[in-house]
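Why do we care about 3D structure at all? Because function follows from shape, and shape follows, mostly, from sequence. That is the central idea of this module. The next example makes it concrete: a single protein chain, its amino acid sequence, and then its structure expressed as tokens.
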Amino acid sequence: MVDTAEQQREALNTGTKPVAESHRFDEAALDRWMQANVEGYAGPLEVRQFKGGQSNPTYQLVTPARKYVMRRKPPGKLLPSAHAVDREFKVISALYPTGFPVARPYGLCTDEDVIGTMFYVMDMVEGRILWDQSLPQYEPAERRAIFMAKLKTLADLHNTDHQAVGLADFGKPGNYMGRQVDRWTKQYRASETIRIEEMERLIEWLPQSLPNQDRTSIVHGDYRLDNMVLHPTEPRVIAVLDWELSTLGDPLADFTYLLMNWVNGGISQIPDLKAHGIPTIEEYVAEYCRLTGRPGLPELNWFFAYNSFRLAGILQGIVGRVRDGTANSPQALANADRVPLLAKAGWAFAQKAGA
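And the structure:
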């Protein structure tokens, strides 16, 4: 049975609503820009806003012939490196011609005079977005097929030659984990509201214990089930969404973030994974290693500590935006309770990794 929290999350995040007052813009100006910049565009244009999301406001653009999606920077005071919609556009533009599942990109507008902030427009991909990681509505064989499709798609991303697709300059080479720890430490400090002892310990320990980075790939940064669109009937990913945190980096950061569901997410609550049709963490690790040609992953606890720390930093950023009056979701404040729990979990993994 679907738990109430998942049902609430799905209800809050599924579908569209009228555009929020704080995110309104000049729709006639957007229509003019679309006519000039989007191949095949023809109005009239109706604008709706997608529900949910704490970050870049996302809109459904409806015309008689087709639907588009627009992602824009939010108005107001922003953290320095956040909301880089131009980077999102760059990565999907590079991946789309390769056949990797992303929405077709149509155009990027860096002129803030058009609607007030930078934005880009892409195709609206119709399919299934699944919120509950336990997939209660499916049979075990279907569940397993969806989990394996999700993993294969991530491995395909990590196996993509970033230089060949024009993304050689999409991130700095090397020391990705060090830079990530530094970045999320700064984001956390900029948004900090209370002192959390375990966060202080992680901030000290993580930079001193960085694992060796042996590969560089395109990393998504927030790869999870509800950031992808599945084919309406087949267990196949047809679009990976929300590339805001993507860059060049250590692919293990992406993969171990996905594994967090097994250690402190919804999957960890399922008593018999095999009977449920969901691969065990050991099976998932073995299959990822097979798909990407790795001998094994010895540093899992370090990465689990890091991912707990990073997620705490992301959620604290949302709490900080509530404090500053720029958060775009009434649910944002609930994240404040999760930050100390994630910090505690992160420190427990750090201790398993030798802290």
